[in-house]
Design brief:
The chain is built from one helix and nine strands. It has 181 residues and is mostly beta strands. 15% of the residues are buried.
């Protein structure tokens, strides 16, 4: 009886092997491979210039530099007197690969204990306006202008002032969408 069981097992294995071979000959597969890359948003300063307006020149200075990386600019004003003003001009440029929407512009004044220093933002200027809610395309720029000055009070002699102006943007929303049926 054991030879009969072995013989039947071999027949079953042979039949299943032949049917599997026939099934494999009648199947096909298709594969989709995909890759993706993310873009970026990046705001940088370009064309930074400063202009000193002072009746105490050449004793008063106003210097500006764009730092590396160029997303930070530094302006130094020294030896200011009454009616001295440092005007800052710059372009805010989207150097990323995706459009940027401005969501926030924030001015923080520090080290101004006596309240002698005034910091003003005159943004936007020029034909390309950059304000909260407006967008910049990749490679596009918007003009910025701001100034700071010391007041004409005797208590303001030897006073110090500092400011930080931060521009914040986010990915610009687009209305186009691509769907495949």
């Amino acid at each position: 009886m054991s030879a009969k069981i072995v013989w039947m097992s071999l027949v079953v294995v042979a039949v299943l092997s032949v049917s599997g071979l026939g099934f494999a000959a009648w199947t096909s597969t298709a594969v989709i491979n995909g890759t993706g890359s993310a873009g970026n948003i990046n705001l940088d300063f370009a064309n930074l210039t400063v202009k000193l307006m002072s009746n105490t020149a050449p004793y008063t200075t106003c210097l500006g530099t764009v730092n590396t990386p160029p997303d930070t600019a530094t302006v130094h004003a020294n030896n200011f007197g009454p009616e001295s003003m440092c005007v800052v001009y710059a372009n805010l440029t989207d150097t990323g690969s995706l459009p940027v929407t401005m969501i926030h512009t924030h001015l923080v004044v520090t080290n101004n204990v006596s309240g002698c220093w005034q910091f003003k933002t005159l943004m936007p200027v020029g034909s390309t306006r950059m304000s909260v809610g407006s967008s910049l395309a990749p490679g596009a720029s918007a003009a910025f202008e701001g100034f700071f000055e010391v007041e004409q009070r005797s208590a303001c002699q030897l006073s110090l002032g500092a400011f930080t102006l931060t521009f914040t943007g986010t990915l610009a929303a687009t209305s186009s969408q691509s769907d495949s049926p």
